[in-house]
Amino acid sequence: MTVRISCGALLLMGSLLTGCLGEGPDPVGTEPDLTDLQLEDLIEDVGGVKGLSAFILPESDNFGQIPQDNRNPITSAKVELGRQLYNETGLMNASKFTGNNYTVSCASCHHSAAGFQAGIKQGIGDGGIGFGVAGEGRIPNPDYEVDSLDIQPIRTPSSLNAAFQKVTLWDGSFGARGANSGTSRLWTRGTPLETNFKGYFGIETQAIAGLSVHRMHVDSQLVDELGYKAQFDAIFANFSTDERYTTETAGLAIAAYERTLLANKAPFQEWLRGDWDALEEDEKQGALLFFGKARCVSCHSSPALNSEGFYALGMGDLDGPGVYGDFDGDTKNLGRGGFTQREGEYYKFKTPQLYNLKDVDFFGHGATFRSIREVVEYKTQNNGAIQNQEMPIEYLYHKFGEVELTDLEVDRLTAFLTNALYDPQLDRYDPASVKSGNCMPNSDPQSRVDLGCD
Q1: Domain residue limits, the chain
Q2: pLDDT given at position 84
Q3: Which of 255, 267, 265, 264 is CA-nearest to residue 304?
Q4: In Å, how far are 149, 189, 246 from 415, measured between CA atoms?
């Protein structure tokens, strides 16, 4: 029988740590303290055969370590093109509103200032005005009918750490493989779901479909006018000229870029790599709860602290101030079951990634929580009561409400989620400019003022 003696136990016995520390990261700076060693042991256990590396995000230029679609291999040139197209308002050429073309980009709803989310309850594309400081100032243009706006019926998911998912959106409806294998009967022709027939994973599928949904139609004339033709020619030389300058190839470049959006400079990532000073004591205690008593890791189990799982936790749908349009009856509110139409999957929503939550003020698929602490309290201190009274109680995840934390434990877990998982340098992923010369990520008159482009 093999007996494993933990580093923490060896420390308590006064033994030398040199050999034991070889199981984890290479130490940098000061020696680890007892909490470091306890946390290292715990994460090694829950990480299984991968140990700590099960939670380490790759470097953004280490393409061999980043999950990718084998039909869309990542290259430096493709990532650079995607970086520009993602922020290029020159692509938005099919506005419903006179004079409103070339004002919106993918980054309008997924920008670095809000952790690659929207910064507001709903993402607002075509027909929105303003940006504010971190997207919080974007509102519908009062001159337009709300029903005509390009506006989301559910909170915009983050593009950050998206590489660690095979299907995308809260209901997982984009992507031809993974959890969506065998669902082709649901890929309705004439809708965005038809894009699944192209056979890509979710990130590629969403990028391709999203361009059309958000009124960006790519063709050879537009590519040439904007100045991207040489890049398309070099990157997609294996495509015929009839298929080279299209929404599909533009989407593939955008998806390659999105796969490199990794929060690998967060303090917890530095700690995992061996910097024992990267976390404060309350953050370490919160991490012990995350991977231990609070059982967060049972659902948030990848390097991105997401998973491919869907769970019914009874969180509310979009409602109240800052919500525009009527989404009662929208199938997005039914979660995974709204897509699959399977009885056991209604009201289940995809497990989100957890990095850079400090950048936003709204949480849950319906933006019904205003702070990270509120979410923690909902899951650990409300005795299993749910927000969404429209959801039959029998759909509720059977383990919801089982974990009970004290106020101090909630404080510590909140500190870990807020600060230890915060990468302060996400603007490193933004381009210096785009070829159109337009303002980024929006170029409507109010956004140009807010962003200092005028």
Answers
A1: 23-59+264-420, 68-262+438-450
A2: 98
A3: 264
A4: 38, 46, 45
Q: Residue 342 carries which side chain, given as an amino acid letter?
A: R
Compute how many other C-beta atoms are within 10 angstroms of the C-beta atom of residue 282: 17
Helix (H) or strand (E) holding 139: strand 139-140
The per-residue pLDDT for range 427-446, each reduced to its tens digit, is 999 999 999 999 999 999 99
Q: Which of 391, 297, 292, 377 is nearest to 345 (CA)?
A: 391
Nearest-angstrom CA–CA distance, 106 and 112: 12
Pairwise CA distance, residues 351 & 299, whole Å: 7
pLDDT attached to residue 147: 85
Helices (H), 227-371: 229-235, 241-244, 247-259, 267-272, 281-291, 336-340
List, in sequence order, every residue forming a beta bridge with 348; answer none if it has no partner.
335
| Region at 116 (left for phi over 0; alpha for psi -120 to 50; beta for the rest) | left
CATH fold group of domain 68-262+438-450: Cytochrome Bc1 Complex; Chain D, domain 2 (1.10.760)
Residues 6+ apart with CB under 8 A from 416: 268, 282, 283, 284, 285, 286, 287, 289, 290
Q: Does the structure show a pLDDT above 80 at 6?
A: no
Q: Which residues pair with 275 in a beta bridge?
A: 28
The answer on pLDDT for 26 being more than 60 is no
Cα distances (angstroms) measured from residue 266 to each of 122, 235, 396, 421, 440:
26, 32, 33, 5, 25
List beta partners, residue 350: 310
- Predicted TM-score (pTM) of the model is 0.93
What per-residue confidence (pLDDT) applies to 350? 98
In the chain, the N- to C-terminal Cα span, in Å, equals 72
Question: Given this structure, which CATH class describes domain 23-59+264-420?
Answer: mainly alpha
Q: Do domains 23-59+264-420 and 68-262+438-450 have the same CATH topology?
A: yes
